[in-house]
Amino acid sequence: MAKGRHGKPQPKKGGFGAAPTKTKIVSEEAIFKRAPHTSNQGSSADSPLLLTLLFRDKASQHSALARIESFYESSAVEGQSNDANRFLTIDQAKSQKLCPNYEAFNCPISAVNQWLGQMFKCPDLVIATPQKEEESSIDDSTDQPKHTEKWWQTHCNEEEVELLSFLDFLGCLEDPANPIDKTTNGPQYLITSLASQAASSLPHERLHFLYFASKEYREYVESLYGSLSNKTRKIIETDLGMRGYAKHVWQDEFQAYVSLNAAEFGNPTKQECTPIKEELQQKQKQLLIWKHINTTSV
């Protein structure tokens, strides 16, 4: 098993010498770790990294993640099927009930970058021409680039700015205004929770990371989902649709919920979901990546 990194992330190469100030995120409990590769091909360096952030209060977490999460997994923006239409400005988001009652969030970092890309192209926003990275002035006392305001700060709320600044510090934010080639060991998947509810919320969110990180597990979930009767699948999909989940995350949500509660979708589905819960848990125990997540977690 590859040794994971546990603790505060290090500055990205060429970045600032200190992490951005965090007031809403419980920074001392922000971790990202390298998961062991689950096949004989490649090395642990190729495996996705998981970033777990804990927030001080529900309002701050919601403000930081609601627009991004809705862009990634929600069907709340009715009739909006493509990325350009699913992106909401701050003013547009005010009229939507985004992620109601969410206690935790999850998404690939790639979804954050896609969201940022749509923000940059949004015709309803006036994007200031950003200063190119190679033209940034250097602080002579530290030999580090001076901090300059990012173009997206004008179009984000305070909590989103804090989150994006931290992701930028880790080196995983792709700025469409400055599309330079770069390699990064930064995280590839983000899960968040309230610090006070981490013990109850994170097990569900880590299952989403497992689904993202392991092709073997995704294929196994697909086979189990396909074994459901039409009646049970219809009940589950109707339930997930009513909760606001977009179709492309249904199987992911199904495995995360049923792994922890066979009766999640009601008594009519419990009989079929009970053995599936046992099979999912057994499969999870067989995967090195799952063992690693649960032995080096918050």
Q: Would you give an account of this structure?
A:
By secondary structure, the chain is of the alpha+beta class. Helix content is 43%, strand content 9%. α1 packs across α5. The N terminus is likely disordered. The radius of gyration is 20 Å and the shape is globular. It contains 11 helices and 6 strands. It has one domain. The strands form 2 sheets. A 4-stranded mixed beta sheet has the order 1-2-6-3, sandwiched between helices. Strands 4-5 form a two-stranded antiparallel sheet.
- The helix tally amounts to 11
The N- and C-terminal alpha carbons lie at a distance of: 19 Å
Average per-residue pLDDT, rounded, comes to 80
Secondary structure tally: strands: 6
Share of helical residues: 40-55%
The fraction of residues in strands falls at: 5-15%
User: Uncertain spans, ≥5 residues at pLDDT below 50?
Assistant: 1-17, 27-32, 37-45, 133-137
Judging from the principal axes of the Cα atoms, what is the shape? globular
| Structural class by secondary-structure content | alpha+beta
Work out the count of structural domains.
1
Q: Rounded to an integer, what's the Rg over CA atoms?
A: 20 Å
Largest sheet: 4 strands, mixed
* Spatial strand arrangement across the major sheet: 1-2-6-3
Helix and strand element order? EEHHHEHEEHEHHHHHH
Structure described in brief:
The protein has 298 residues and is of the alpha+beta class. It has helices spanning 58-73, 83-86, 90-93, 109-121, 158-170, 198-213, 215-226, 230-242, 250-258, 267-286, 288-295; strands at 31-34, 49-55, 104-108, 138-139, 144-145, 189-194. It has one domain (27-295).
